[in-house]
């Protein structure tokens, strides 16, 4: 975890674990010739108590003659309208702060005070979520070569005994008793119940996480060797894998290959579950036709073609913006789309062919000229043929299953009052052809 001469950021909340961690690292600092920097995030969750904790940690750092850095983050405000838990946001803010500190001080390590019981709670949380080996391995003792957890195999009892022996003071975080947090319910309700079945359940789960970590590392190394041979294309390019090559490996390796390609294609480290991996794996079967296309999170499309599985990254939305004035009964060239829209006048209703592709018809005398053509804008509304009220154009596109990335490529026709037509698709009820209609405006996409 440590090398001589390193600079270490120590995350200190003021609680028992982090105070013990700081004391231990200070005792080792002479032997290891390491420099310590105390980092504290004031998360703004407990108001007065949060400020009290920050001052306490600053005092401890001052007593030890160590640099102290803190940051205030209003976690409750950051949580609003995100749909995420307050724990997730606090964790994200804390890691970001610590990594910023590491960069500023050119530190090689960031030390966290997680203990064996924190590890067990994490494993149970991941078990409840249906995680595989990566989740059941829990937190890593060393992560990404920079995050270290020296107390990960120490019990709370051992830490408490150490604090008592060294006569160290610390603060209590009352949120650890708040059972509105799932982790706290696991700590105070579920684990005591499990210990009735096996008093050693925490040690056993900790051992299991260690076994899972080692086996997970072994499988990941095998997959890394496979990808070193395959040489994946850049993230924004299609990935092709022969089904015959995939079937050479056991299912456990197939699962990891698929998940790694999904992470590579999406640029995301999570968001893909067992269901998604299994759906891709099903394409390896000879029973699956080549026409099968999977739509996965982050816009990833996966399909089978000629003995290969094709992974396509999400298409990027084209930043198309166009607007053209329409001169009476003239054609309009929309160069952004490479199409032409023609306008004609029809006097005979028998010439109207409602089934003609790419053509719409409207009552010429109900149109309030001049006309213009432009593409979709947020908030656009139309009164589709047959409706008494208006409807968002976006909702119409969704109903017609027009892909998101194609919606700005659909021309809209507007007169002085409103949208009178969506080229090639529908007209506004206001300009529909009626019994008394004498002149008909024909609009065709060529």
Structure, described:
By secondary structure, the chain is an alpha+beta fold. It has three domains: 7-205, Rossmann fold, CATH 3.40.50.620; 232-312, 2-Layer Sandwich (Uridine Diphospho-n-acetylenolpyruvylglucosamine Reductase, domain 3), CATH 3.30.465; 323-445, Phenylalanyl-trna Synthetase, Chain B, domain 3 (Phenylalanyl-tRNA Synthetase, Chain B, domain 3, 3-Layer(bba) Sandwich), CATH 3.50.40. It is 38% helix and 19% strand. The protein contains 13 helices and 21 strands. It has helices spanning 16-32, 48-64, 75-79, 86-105, 116-128, 133-136, 156-166, 182-197, 201-230, 243-246, 251-266, 274-282, 393-399, and strands at 7-11, 35-42, 68-72, 109-111, 142-143, 147-148, 239-242, 293-295, 301-305, 308-312, 323-326, 332-334, 339-346, 359-363, 371-374, 381-382, 391-392, 412-414, 419-422, 426-427, 440-445. The chain has a six-stranded mixed sheet, sandwiched between helices. A five-stranded antiparallel sheet has the order 11-15-18-19-20, with no helix packed on it.
Strand order of the largest sheet: 3-2-1-4-6-5
**Separation of the first and last Cα atoms:** 68 Å
What is the annotated CATH architecture of the largest domain?
3-Layer(aba) Sandwich
- CATH level-4 homologous superfamily of the largest domain: HUPs
Q: Which spans have pLDDT < 50 for at least 5 consecutive residues?
A: none
Shape: elongated
The number of helical runs is 13
Instruction: State mean pLDDT (0 to 100 scale).
Output: 90
Q: Please identify the structural class as seen in this structure.
A: alpha+beta
* Total number of distinct structural domains: 3
CATH topology of the largest domain, which one? Answer: Rossmann fold
CATH class type of the largest domain: Alpha Beta
Strand content: 15-25%
**CA-atom Rg in angstroms:** 32 Å
Beta strand count: 21
User: How helix-rich are the residues, as a percent range?
Assistant: 25-40%
Largest sheet: 6 strands, mixed
